[in-house]
Amino acid sequence: MQPVEEAAGFNWSGAYVGIGGGFGASVHKFSVPGLDFNGLGGNGVFGELTAGYDYMVSERFLLGGFIDANLSNIGPSLSIAGGDVDLTNSYGFDVGLRAGYLLNPNTLGYVLGGYTWQHFKLDGSGAADGLEFSQNRSGYVLGVGMETVLRGNWTLKTEYRYADYGDKSVLDLGDASLDIEPSTHTFHIAANYRFGAQNGGGTSFAAPTYDWTGFYAGGALGAGTMVHDLNLNLGLGASGELNGIGGEGVFGEASVGYDHDFGSWVAGVQLDARYSGIQTKLDLGPVSIKGDADYGFDALARIGAKVNESTLAYVLGGYSWQHFDLHAEAPGGGSADIYDWGSSGFSIGGGLETAVSSNMTVGLEYRYSQYQKEDFGSGGILEDTPSFQTVRLGAKYKFN
C-alpha cells in the first residue's frame, strides 16, 4: 500500500454523512437510603449512522453540529439457576455541537457536547423468561475526537464519548425508592463522506515534515471502565455468573518507545506505566467499600499505515499487568485492606496519531484489556475475571 497523497486544500466546511460503530461499557449506579453502589457494568458493541454540518470560522478553527442514531448490546448480564437476565442500551441517539482545530491540513482535533437519549431494556430468558422492563432516559454527552482525510471526499473518525443519563427512580419502596443512574463510555470508529470537500476553498497552510523513525517519550490522560466477571460455584449444580460488577474513572500514563518508518507503514514497540482512579464503590451508611485498579503497566507492539502525509492509523497488542485493591474506609480516616492482588493479561487496541510539528505528535487511542482469573483464595468457589475498556488522549516527543 502506497501512502495517500496529502489532500491539498481539503475543504472541511459543509455537510457530511457517515457510518460506523465501536465498543463501549455501561455502569449503573444504584442507590436507596443508606446504600449507594457504583455499580453494575457490562461491555458490548454498537453500530451508528451520523449526519452533520461543519463551518470553518477561520483557517484552522471549525464549528459544527451533528446527530447520530445507534443500535447497541452494551450492558451487564446475570446467569443463575438456569435463567439469564440482560440489561442493555438497546438503541438511542445523540445530538450536539462540536468545536475543532486543524492540527495539520489533514487532521482535525475536536471536542463535543450535547443531548443524548437512550432506550434501556431488561430481558429475561430460560428460567427468567417473562422478566421484562424498559425505560427511556435522556441526559448529556461529552467527548473528544480526531478526524483525518483518507482520499477524495472521505475521512476517518475516531472518538470517545461519555454519557450520563441522570438519577431516576425505578421502584417505589414506600418511604423510599430505588434510584438508578446509568452512564456509558464509548469509542467510535466511523467513515464520513463530506460533500464538496474537493470543491476548493479549503486549507492552505503547510503540513509539518515528520519522520516516524526514532525513540520517543510521551504522556496521556484517559478515562474508562472496568468490568468484573464473577463466577460462583457452590457445588451440587449451584452456580451463577454475573458479568458484571462495574467501575469507572480516569487515569494518567507515561510512555517510552521506538518506531521505525518502512515507507507506507510504521512498526514499533512501547512501554507504558499508569496510575489510575478507576474504581467500584459501595457505600453502606458511613462505611465505604472500594475496589481500586490503582496502578499497572503494558509492554506493547504496534503496526500502522500512513493514511495521509501526516497521520498514522494503527493497531496494537501485547502484555499487561494490573494491581487491584479491595479495601474498606470508615469515618475518621480509618482504612482496612480486604484483599489485593496483581494480575497479568493482554491488551489490544488501535488509534490515530498525527504530527503537529517535526518532533511532536498527538493521538487518540482505544484499548481493551483482560486479566487472569482470580479466585480470592476460595478454591474456585468465587472467581473474578476483570476487563477494561480505556481511551487515552496523548502527546509524544520524538528525540531524533
TrEMBL record:
Domain Outer membrane protein beta-barrel: 5-195, 206-399
Entry keyword set: Cell outer membrane, Membrane, Signal
Keyword Membrane: yes
Localization: Cell outer membrane
Gene Ontology cellular component annotations, sorted alphabetically: cell outer membrane
InterPro entries per UniProt: Beta-barrel_OMP, OMP-like, OMP/PagP_B-barrel
Predominant subcellular localization, coarse grouping: membrane
Domain of life: Bacteria
Cell inner membrane as UniProt keyword: no
A Pfam family of this chain: OMP_b-brl
Family named by the database record: Belongs to the Omp25/RopB family.
PANTHER family per UniProt: BLL7405 PROTEIN (PTHR34001)
Name assigned to this protein: Outer membrane protein-like protein
